[in-house]
Structures are given as C-alpha cells and as structure tokens.
Design a protein that fits this description.
This protein is an alpha+beta fold. It has one domain: Electron Transport, Fmn-binding Protein, Chain A (Pnp Oxidase, Chain A, Roll). A 7-stranded antiparallel sheet has the order 2-1-5-6-7-4-3, covered by helices on one side. The N and C termini lie far apart (42 Å). The relative contact order is 0.19.
Length: 161
Amino acid sequence: MSFTLSNEEALTALYPEPSKKAQHKRIPELTEKLARKVAESSLCVIASMGNNSVDCSPRGDAPGQLVKVLDAKTIAIPDRPGSHRLDTAKNIINNGKVSLWFLSTDWAESVRVSGDAHISVDPTLLNQFILNDVLPVTVMVVTINEVATHNDRAVKQSGLL
C-alpha cells in the first residue's frame, strides 16, 4: 500500500472546502492599496525556477527602496550587491516564472505576486534605483499575472513578527 498521494482529487478529499473569501482572493493586478503596500515593503522573498534548479532568495532594503511599482501590472526590483551567484537572475533568463512574497513588520497580512520576469539593463530604469550613489547592474522586471494577500498567522506563530 502506498501512502503517497498521486492526484489532486485524493488530496482535496482530505480537506474541507476553502471559504468563499479564500477561493476569490486572487486578483490579476495590484489594487491601489496593494501597490502602496508593495512599494513600502522592506523584505521580499523571490522564488524562481531555472532549467535544473529551484531557488528561493530574500531581498531586503529600506521601505521605498526595495521595489518600484511601475503600474498595476508591473513591478521592478534592483539587484543590490550580494554574493554574485546570480541564481535568481539565471533562473529568470532560463524560465521567467517567479513568485514574490512581500513582507513588512507593519502589516497584518503579506502580499504575494506571481508573474513573468525578465532582467533589464535599461539605463532609465537603472537610474530609478540609485542608492548611496551606486547604480544597480540589473533590474528584475515582473509582469504580474496574479496577486494574493495572506494572513500572517504563520509568520506571527514563528515569532518573526
């Protein structure tokens, strides 16, 4: 007998039906309120998948420096100095699908954004992210496919908030 679930029907049969609110919490773009929250976030965790790797990388900065909301369907995040491994950037070049989780100690809920990303070296875009007279080498631009909010019960239970 196998204890491994092999289809969605077997999985969903084990759980109660999600609430109507949970079923309809995903939207195709940032609302004005969510755009403000994302723009003010201080921590983002980026999940990406390349040809042979999956990566989950944190990005942190002062509120207002981490991400720019270009419009309701587009955000941009600079690549600040780090390890230079380029795991996320390489995955984006090879696959382009990302999921981002925005957090702040000031929020009761976090924001998740999923979409298609590309890496840009557009000078106009790079100049929007000058910090301490340092220009980022690249900027990740995400075209949003889906936005969702999450109650931060798990983060609070962890003791991080």
